[in-house]
Specification:
alpha+beta; two-stranded antiparallel ribbon; 14 helices; about 45% helix
């Protein structure tokens, strides 16, 4: 009778008591380990300190660094929600170590993070300062060129349904009656005619088909997220969205600035704010590249006042002098190179943002969407830093696969040379020479 050549696992081994260290269960090259070393978590706590009341009754609050780390994990892994992050963290030793929790410690509840994001940190600069600190490290590492900025925008699905839309009506006559009229001669205000009660009556009965009602941002507003705006693109479904603007340095596709805004008006309205944010972070913004959606006489004038060269193709029918000069710039090698940078890096960065948690708004309100964009952009810039460190380490230690290939090639060449020498020696001995 043959014996089995394997050891049977009964399952009892999993109930044995062992002395283990979480630090030993996570590889030294783990990405979250490296992120932990790149961020000054003490500064994060200092920034969040004003939003915690000192002393008092009740249990101590969760470490604000833990809450920020949870937001980074969500963005880094591209998980859909904080509930999903906590489910993964329950069994993921890398996340547990990154958060500073032991094997048997209970993780924070998802509602704790929700309160911190929507209430405690909503009007703070915690995420803004974290983004700026990581961007400064990217600049110090030589990943930011500092001359050209490429800008593009995208729509972010709002956390609100179409059924939340309600008509937004204003009584124009009553508002006009409530105004006070200034008497220029007397120099005093006098009240207008007293408010009149609205006169309402039932509409006359009608026949025929019910007219089709068309909603627009001018007539309806969402009751769950008033900042979300209705968007309907031909061939696509109607939905409520926010707009996110992204400014990228094309040298290593580092995100320099992000801005969440209402999805109404022109995209070009955000250019001045984006340039201001980028310059605050140390970027010169000597050139700014964008698509024709940002082209207008006002945007060209605004960039000229900021001493920034506008590499923006004008609208096809634009005939003002600034449009003519813009066409000439876009025909130059610099203009063509800027168009390539915009397509490759601005649109590429937006695609990355969507993979890192910015495809859909998790909270309601433009300000909270801004925090979500900042967390995703910070995760992407941390990825750039880690990649740069990997490249520097390969340059320092050499490329092992390349070394192995070179050794294999040289060994084969040496073997062929020895075979040829052996053949020549055998031929010489056979001829007696």
């Amino acid at each position: 009778m043959a014996l089995a050549a394997f050891v049977v696992r009964s399952g009892d081994e999993t109930r044995q008591v062992q002395m283990v260290c979480v630090d030993d269960l996570v590889p030294a090259g783990d990405e979250l380990r490296r992120i932990e070393r790149l961020v000054d978590w003490g500064q994060v706590r200092v920034t969040a300190l004003p939003f915690y009341r000192p002393g008092g009754a009740g249990r101590a609050g969760i470490d604000p660094a833990v809450l920020v780390k949870l937001a980074l994990v969500l963005a880094w892994r591209g998980l859909p929600s904080m509930r999903a992050v906590l489910r993964v963290a329950a069994t993921d030793m890398s996340i547990r170590r990154f958060l500073g929790f032991g094997l048997t410690e209970g993780l924070p509840d998802h509602s704790t993070f929700s309160h911190a994001q929507t209430k405690r940190f909503a009007d703070s600069s915690v995420f803004e300062q974290l983004f700026t600190a990581v961007l400064r490290q990217c600049t110090d590492a030589g990943l930011v060129g500092g001359r050209r900025l490429v800008v593009d925008g995208t729509h972010i699905e709002a956390d609100a349904a179409l059924k939340s839309l309600r008509a937004e009506l204003v009584d124009v006559s009553a508002a006009a009656d409530a105004e006070r009229v200034t008497d220029a001669d007397a120099g005093a205000d006098r009240p207008a005619v007293p408010l009149r009660a609205a006169s309402l009556k039932l509409a006359e009965s009608r026949s025929g088909p019910t007219p089709k009602r068309v909603a627009s941002n001018a007539t309806v507003v969402s009751r769950t997220d008033p900042d979300a705006k209705l968007r309907h693109k031909p061939g696509h479904r109607k939905h409520l969205v926010h707009r996110g603007q992204v400014a990228v340095d094309p040298k290593a596709r580092v995100i320099v600035a992000v801005q969440a805004e209402h999805a109404t008006g022109s995209e070009a309205d955000a250019l001045r704010d984006l340039v201001t944010r980028a310059r605050f972070a140390g970027h010169r913004v000597a050139e700014l590249a964008a698509d024709s959606g940002y082209a207008s006489q006002e945007s060209y004038a605004a960039l000229e006042a900021l001493k920034t060269q506008a590499l923006i193709p004008p609208q096809p029918g634009a005939k003002h002098p600034a449009a003519g000069r813009a066409r000439e710039r876009m025909r130059t090698p610099v203009g063509r190179d800027a168009a390539v940078d915009r397509q490759a890096h601005a649109e590429g960065a937006i695609a990355e943002l969507k993979r890192h948690g910015a495809s859909r708004a998790r909270c309601r309100g433009t300000r909270l969407v801004q925090l979500q964009l900042l967390a995703a952009a910070t995760a992407i810039n941390l990825k750039r830093l880690i990649a740069a460190q990997n490249g520097a380490q390969r340059d320092q230690n050499g490329d092992p696969p390349a070394h192995a290939a070179a050794i294999t090639w040289l060994t084969g060449l040496l073997a062929r040379v020895l075979d040829e020498l052996t053949r020549i020696a055998a031929a010489d001995s056979s001829t007696g020479s």
